[in-house]
Amino acid sequence: MDGRKEGWMEIRQDIIQTYAENCFATIWWRDQDVRDGWLRDGSGRWTTTTF
Q1: Can you tell which superkingdom this protein's organism belongs to (predicted)?
Q2: Count of structural domains, the chain
Q3: Which domain holds residue 32?
C-alpha cells in the first residue's frame, strides 16, 4: 500500500522529522506530486524519499 491520496499523506515519523529539521513546516503533497518515489517539497524542488 503506497498510501497516496489527495491532501495530507501518512508519512513515516523519521521523514517528517527530516523535513522539519530542514524548515519545511508544511508537508502537503497532492497525489500528482508523487512520481515513483519523488516528492515535491515546500519550496517546489523535487526530492527523493523512501517510504
Answers
A1: Eukaryota
A2: 1
A3: 13-48
